[in-house]
Write a structure and sequence with these properties.
By secondary structure, this protein is of the alpha+beta class. It has one domain. The protein contains five helices and four strands. Strands 3-2-1-4 form a four-stranded antiparallel sheet. Strand 2 and strand 3 form a beta hairpin. Helix 2 crosses helix 5 and helix 4 runs antiparallel to helix 5. The termini are far apart. The C terminus is likely disordered.
């Protein structure tokens, strides 16, 4: 009950941003299960072109995506990155999705996606030193 009370005490703007973040993460996760990444990427691009009624700061978007990740762990790093990119772009911020790969000691490959905006890592910034960027600078989405 404490989490629900804490949520209710948030300003309406932050509650709305959290809900939009959680919905986008869940939708992108579902898309990634069903359709190829290229189609999901096109969807994210279309969603990014709209404008938000209220502009959110980049740290506010990072907060909302992080909270959704902790409270509703339905997504993965790529679905969270796509959601953050859409929310950032709709608020007028440059947002670059980066994808990196790493190899485990047993030979398995790992992949990780994160979002950079204004030179700062906003979403997915844990253990980045382990990953070799698979793409050069520029927007994935």
């Amino acid at each position: 009950m404490g989490s629900l009370t804490s949520f209710a005490r948030l300003p309406a703007r932050r509650r709305s941003l959290f809900i939009r973040s959680a919905m986008l993460i869940a939708a992108f996760r579902a898309c990634l299960w069903v359709v190829p990444f290229s189609r999901t990427q096109r969807l994210a691009t279309r969603l990014s072109s709209g404008s938000a009624r209220r502009r959110s700061s980049a740290p506010e978007v990072a907060w909302a995506v992080g909270l959704a990740e902790r409270r509703l762990p339905v997504g993965n790093c790529l679905s969270r990155a796509l959601a953050a990119q859409v929310l950032l772009a709709r608020s007028g911020h440059q947002a670059d999705i980066r994808i990196g790969v790493a190899r485990e000691d047993d030979g398995r490959f790992l992949a990780h996606a994160w979002v950079e905006s204004g030179g700062d890592v906003l979403v997915g910034g844990t253990e980045l030193e382990r990953y070799q960027a698979a793409t050069g600078p520029g927007r994935i989405v």
